[in-house]
Design goal:
- The structure is a single chain.
- The chain has 74 residues and is mostly helical.
- 62% of the residues lie in helices and 0% in strands.
- The protein is globular, with a radius of gyration of 12 Å.
């Protein structure tokens, strides 16, 4: 099995975070699957995600500079 080390697009990551961040789609795109699942659980299970997820997504959109494997976005 080979690892996919191709750099992902930062622009795509930001757009996913902006428009679908409440669902954690940008986390799945960048390989941060655990964060994406947590966001979905917060949204579905307790509704807390309606308040927390948009703020969390904005923070990630600004601060995350690399994917889960440590490859910098291009």
């Amino acid at each position: 099995m080979t690892e996919n080390t191709a750099a992902k697009s930062r622009t795509t990551y930001i757009l996913l975070a902006l428009f679908l961040g409440g669902l954690g789609i940008h986390n799945f795109y960048s390989g941060h699957t655990k964060h994406g699942i947590i966001k979905l659980v917060l949204l579905v299970a307790c509704g807390l995600g309606l308040l927390v997820n948009p703020i969390w997504s904005i923070v990630e959109m600004i601060t995350v500079k690399q994917d889960a494997q440590g490859v910098q976005f291009n």
